[in-house]
Amino acid sequence: MTTLALGPSWLDPDYLINTFGIIGILTIVFAESGLLIGFFLPGDSLLFTTGLLVVTDKLDTPLWLICTLIALAAIAGDQVGYLFGRKVGPALFKRPDSRLFKQENVEKAHEFFEKYGPKSLVLARFVPIVRTFTPIIAGVSRMNYRSFIVFNIIGGVLWGVGVTVLGAALGQIDFVHEHIEAILIGIVLISVLPIAIEFLRARSKSNKSKAGDDSAAAHAESGDTPPQGQRGRHAKR
Protein backbone atom coordinates (compact mmCIF):
# COMPACT_ATOMS: atom_id res chain seq x y z
CA MET A 1 0.00 0.00 0.00
CA THR A 2 1.16 3.52 -0.69
CA THR A 3 0.71 6.68 1.31
CA LEU A 4 -2.20 8.77 0.13
CA ALA A 5 -0.82 12.21 -0.63
CA LEU A 6 -3.88 14.26 0.25
CA GLY A 7 -2.51 16.14 3.22
CA PRO A 8 -1.85 15.20 6.86
CA SER A 9 -1.59 11.57 7.97
CA TRP A 10 -5.06 11.57 9.56
CA LEU A 11 -6.47 11.83 6.02
CA ASP A 12 -4.57 8.73 4.90
CA PRO A 13 -6.78 5.65 5.44
CA ASP A 14 -3.84 3.26 5.16
CA TYR A 15 -1.99 5.10 7.94
CA LEU A 16 -5.09 5.23 10.14
CA ILE A 17 -5.82 1.51 9.76
CA ASN A 18 -2.21 0.42 10.34
CA THR A 19 -1.87 2.72 13.36
CA PHE A 20 -5.18 2.26 15.16
CA GLY A 21 -6.54 -1.00 13.74
CA ILE A 22 -10.21 -1.94 13.81
CA ILE A 23 -10.90 0.20 16.90
CA GLY A 24 -9.69 3.24 14.98
CA ILE A 25 -11.88 2.34 11.99
CA LEU A 26 -15.00 2.05 14.13
CA THR A 27 -14.21 5.25 16.04
CA ILE A 28 -13.80 7.24 12.82
CA VAL A 29 -17.00 5.81 11.30
CA PHE A 30 -18.89 6.64 14.50
CA ALA A 31 -17.49 10.20 14.67
CA GLU A 32 -18.07 10.98 11.00
CA SER A 33 -21.64 9.70 11.17
CA GLY A 34 -22.96 12.17 13.71
CA LEU A 35 -20.40 14.14 15.71
CA LEU A 36 -19.73 17.75 14.74
CA ILE A 37 -15.98 17.20 14.95
CA GLY A 38 -16.05 14.24 12.55
CA PHE A 39 -17.00 15.92 9.28
CA PHE A 40 -13.39 16.14 8.00
CA LEU A 41 -12.56 12.43 8.49
CA PRO A 42 -12.01 10.16 5.43
CA GLY A 43 -15.06 7.89 5.62
CA ASP A 44 -15.44 6.58 2.06
CA SER A 45 -11.76 5.97 1.35
CA LEU A 46 -11.35 4.43 4.83
CA LEU A 47 -14.08 1.85 4.25
CA PHE A 48 -12.83 1.06 0.76
CA THR A 49 -9.28 0.54 2.04
CA THR A 50 -10.57 -1.59 4.93
CA GLY A 51 -12.27 -3.98 2.53
CA LEU A 52 -9.18 -4.12 0.36
CA LEU A 53 -6.91 -4.91 3.33
CA VAL A 54 -9.23 -7.69 4.53
CA VAL A 55 -9.12 -9.64 1.25
CA THR A 56 -5.36 -9.18 0.96
CA ASP A 57 -4.91 -10.59 4.51
CA LYS A 58 -3.34 -7.37 5.77
CA LEU A 59 -6.19 -6.94 8.23
CA ASP A 60 -6.83 -10.06 10.29
CA THR A 61 -10.60 -9.75 10.70
CA PRO A 62 -13.32 -11.66 8.79
CA LEU A 63 -15.09 -9.49 6.23
CA TRP A 64 -18.57 -10.32 7.58
CA LEU A 65 -17.55 -9.30 11.09
CA ILE A 66 -15.92 -6.02 10.14
CA CYS A 67 -18.90 -5.12 7.91
CA THR A 68 -21.28 -5.79 10.81
CA LEU A 69 -19.23 -3.69 13.22
CA ILE A 70 -18.90 -0.83 10.74
CA ALA A 71 -22.65 -0.78 10.09
CA LEU A 72 -23.34 -0.73 13.84
CA ALA A 73 -20.83 2.09 14.37
CA ALA A 74 -22.43 4.12 11.56
CA ILE A 75 -25.94 3.57 12.94
CA ALA A 76 -24.84 4.46 16.47
CA GLY A 77 -23.12 7.62 15.22
CA ASP A 78 -26.29 8.82 13.50
CA GLN A 79 -28.26 8.00 16.63
CA VAL A 80 -26.02 10.24 18.74
CA GLY A 81 -26.25 12.98 16.11
CA TYR A 82 -30.06 12.82 16.15
CA LEU A 83 -30.25 13.03 19.94
CA PHE A 84 -27.77 15.90 19.94
CA GLY A 85 -29.91 17.76 17.40
CA ARG A 86 -33.06 17.28 19.46
CA LYS A 87 -31.32 18.62 22.55
CA VAL A 88 -29.58 21.57 20.93
CA GLY A 89 -32.44 22.50 18.62
CA PRO A 90 -32.47 25.91 16.88
CA ALA A 91 -29.44 27.04 18.92
CA LEU A 92 -27.30 25.11 16.43
CA PHE A 93 -28.16 27.62 13.71
CA LYS A 94 -27.00 30.50 15.92
CA ARG A 95 -23.66 28.98 16.83
CA PRO A 96 -20.75 31.17 15.61
CA ASP A 97 -18.18 29.85 13.14
CA SER A 98 -14.96 28.38 14.50
CA ARG A 99 -12.02 26.43 13.16
CA LEU A 100 -13.93 23.15 13.26
CA PHE A 101 -17.46 24.46 12.85
CA LYS A 102 -18.87 26.32 9.85
CA GLN A 103 -22.45 27.52 9.78
CA GLU A 104 -22.58 26.88 6.02
CA ASN A 105 -22.20 23.12 6.67
CA VAL A 106 -25.30 23.16 8.87
CA GLU A 107 -27.26 25.16 6.30
CA LYS A 108 -26.18 22.82 3.50
CA ALA A 109 -27.30 19.77 5.46
CA HIS A 110 -30.58 21.50 6.33
CA GLU A 111 -31.28 22.23 2.66
CA PHE A 112 -30.42 18.62 1.80
CA PHE A 113 -32.81 17.35 4.49
CA GLU A 114 -35.59 19.69 3.41
CA LYS A 115 -35.18 18.64 -0.23
CA TYR A 116 -35.14 14.87 0.21
CA GLY A 117 -36.99 14.40 3.51
CA PRO A 118 -36.44 11.19 5.52
CA LYS A 119 -34.63 9.47 2.64
CA SER A 120 -31.90 12.10 3.00
CA LEU A 121 -30.59 9.94 5.86
CA VAL A 122 -29.79 7.29 3.25
CA LEU A 123 -28.60 9.57 0.45
CA ALA A 124 -26.47 11.72 2.76
CA ARG A 125 -24.42 8.67 3.75
CA PHE A 126 -22.66 8.93 0.40
CA VAL A 127 -22.00 12.68 0.58
CA PRO A 128 -19.05 13.80 2.77
CA ILE A 129 -19.73 16.53 5.34
CA VAL A 130 -23.47 16.36 4.64
CA ARG A 131 -23.63 12.85 6.16
CA THR A 132 -22.21 14.22 9.44
CA PHE A 133 -24.76 17.01 9.81
CA THR A 134 -27.91 15.41 8.36
CA PRO A 135 -28.80 13.26 11.43
CA ILE A 136 -28.27 16.34 13.60
CA ILE A 137 -30.64 18.33 11.40
CA ALA A 138 -33.14 15.46 11.60
CA GLY A 139 -33.02 15.85 15.38
CA VAL A 140 -33.36 19.62 15.19
CA SER A 141 -36.42 19.15 12.94
CA ARG A 142 -37.79 16.58 15.42
CA MET A 143 -38.22 13.96 12.72
CA ASN A 144 -40.45 11.07 13.82
CA TYR A 145 -38.16 8.79 15.83
CA ARG A 146 -39.43 5.52 14.36
CA SER A 147 -38.94 6.80 10.83
CA PHE A 148 -35.47 7.99 11.77
CA ILE A 149 -34.50 4.56 13.10
CA VAL A 150 -35.66 2.84 9.90
CA PHE A 151 -33.83 5.17 7.51
CA ASN A 152 -30.81 5.29 9.80
CA ILE A 153 -30.45 1.50 9.70
CA ILE A 154 -30.95 1.36 5.93
CA GLY A 155 -28.39 4.11 5.32
CA GLY A 156 -25.86 2.69 7.78
CA VAL A 157 -25.99 -0.78 6.23
CA LEU A 158 -25.93 0.39 2.59
CA TRP A 159 -22.99 2.73 3.17
CA GLY A 160 -20.98 0.83 5.77
CA VAL A 161 -21.34 -2.61 4.22
CA GLY A 162 -21.60 -1.48 0.60
CA VAL A 163 -18.41 0.58 0.38
CA THR A 164 -16.43 -1.97 2.42
CA VAL A 165 -17.57 -4.88 0.24
CA LEU A 166 -16.80 -2.83 -2.87
CA GLY A 167 -13.24 -2.39 -1.64
CA ALA A 168 -13.00 -6.12 -0.93
CA ALA A 169 -14.34 -7.03 -4.38
CA LEU A 170 -12.07 -4.66 -6.28
CA GLY A 171 -9.15 -5.54 -4.01
CA GLN A 172 -8.89 -8.90 -5.76
CA ILE A 173 -8.10 -7.23 -9.08
CA ASP A 174 -4.42 -6.68 -9.93
CA PHE A 175 -5.11 -3.33 -11.59
CA VAL A 176 -6.47 -2.00 -8.29
CA HIS A 177 -3.31 -3.03 -6.43
CA GLU A 178 -1.12 -1.31 -9.00
CA HIS A 179 -3.10 1.97 -8.91
CA ILE A 180 -4.47 2.00 -5.36
CA GLU A 181 -3.41 5.58 -4.57
CA ALA A 182 -5.03 6.97 -7.71
CA ILE A 183 -8.20 5.00 -6.98
CA LEU A 184 -8.42 6.33 -3.42
CA ILE A 185 -7.96 9.88 -4.67
CA GLY A 186 -10.68 9.21 -7.24
CA ILE A 187 -13.05 8.01 -4.50
CA VAL A 188 -12.49 11.20 -2.54
CA LEU A 189 -13.02 13.39 -5.62
CA ILE A 190 -16.18 11.54 -6.66
CA SER A 191 -17.59 11.75 -3.14
CA VAL A 192 -17.15 15.54 -3.00
CA LEU A 193 -18.46 16.06 -6.55
CA PRO A 194 -22.11 16.49 -5.42
CA ILE A 195 -21.01 19.20 -2.99
CA ALA A 196 -19.06 21.01 -5.71
CA ILE A 197 -22.01 20.86 -8.12
CA GLU A 198 -24.42 22.14 -5.49
CA PHE A 199 -22.01 24.95 -4.58
CA LEU A 200 -21.66 26.07 -8.21
CA ARG A 201 -25.42 25.88 -8.73
CA ALA A 202 -26.11 27.95 -5.61
CA ARG A 203 -23.45 30.47 -6.62
CA SER A 204 -24.89 30.82 -10.12
CA LYS A 205 -28.39 31.32 -8.71
CA SER A 206 -27.11 33.93 -6.27
CA ASN A 207 -25.28 35.82 -9.01
CA LYS A 208 -28.37 35.87 -11.25
CA SER A 209 -30.52 37.12 -8.40
CA LYS A 210 -28.02 39.82 -7.53
CA ALA A 211 -27.74 40.90 -11.16
CA GLY A 212 -31.54 41.21 -11.41
CA ASP A 213 -31.73 43.28 -8.23
CA ASP A 214 -28.90 45.57 -9.36
CA SER A 215 -30.55 46.10 -12.74
CA ALA A 216 -33.90 46.93 -11.13
CA ALA A 217 -32.21 49.36 -8.74
CA ALA A 218 -30.42 51.08 -11.62
CA HIS A 219 -33.69 51.54 -13.54
CA ALA A 220 -35.39 52.88 -10.43
CA GLU A 221 -32.66 55.49 -9.91
CA SER A 222 -32.79 56.62 -13.55
CA GLY A 223 -36.57 56.72 -13.62
CA ASP A 224 -36.73 54.24 -16.49
CA THR A 225 -39.25 51.44 -16.65
CA PRO A 226 -37.54 48.09 -16.08
CA PRO A 227 -37.84 45.41 -18.75
CA GLN A 228 -40.94 43.25 -18.84
CA GLY A 229 -39.44 40.32 -16.89
CA GLN A 230 -38.02 42.49 -14.14
CA ARG A 231 -41.12 44.68 -13.92
CA GLY A 232 -43.15 41.60 -13.08
CA ARG A 233 -40.81 40.78 -10.23
CA HIS A 234 -40.19 44.21 -8.73
CA ALA A 235 -43.35 46.23 -9.34
CA LYS A 236 -47.06 45.70 -9.30
CA ARG A 237 -48.93 46.25 -12.51
Q: Which keywords apply here?
A:
single chain; 237 residues; mainly alpha; 72% helix; globular; disordered N terminus
Fold and architecture overview:
There is one protein chain. The protein is an all-alpha fold. The chain has one domain. Helix content is 72%, strand content 0%. The chain is built from ten helices and no strands.
Question: Briefly, what is this?
Answer:
The protein has one domain (9-205). It has helices spanning 13-34, 43-55, 63-88, 103-116, 120-123, 130-140, 145-170, 174-178, 180-222, 228-234.
**What is the end-to-end distance?**
68 Å
Let me know the number of strands.
0
Q: Provide the low-confidence segments as ranges.
A: 1-8, 231-237
Order of helices and strands: HHHHHHHHHH
Share of β-strand residues: under 5%
Number of helical segments?
A: 10
- Determine the structural class based on helices, strands and strand pairing: mainly alpha
Radius of gyration: 22 Å
In percent, how helical is the residue content?
A: over 70%
Shape field: globular
Overall average pLDDT: 76
User: Could you give a short account of the major beta sheet?
Assistant: none
Task: Provide the fold topology.
Blueprint: H1 13-34, H2 43-55, H3 63-88, H4 103-116, H5 120-123, H6 130-140, H7 145-170, H8 174-178, H9 180-222, H10 228-234
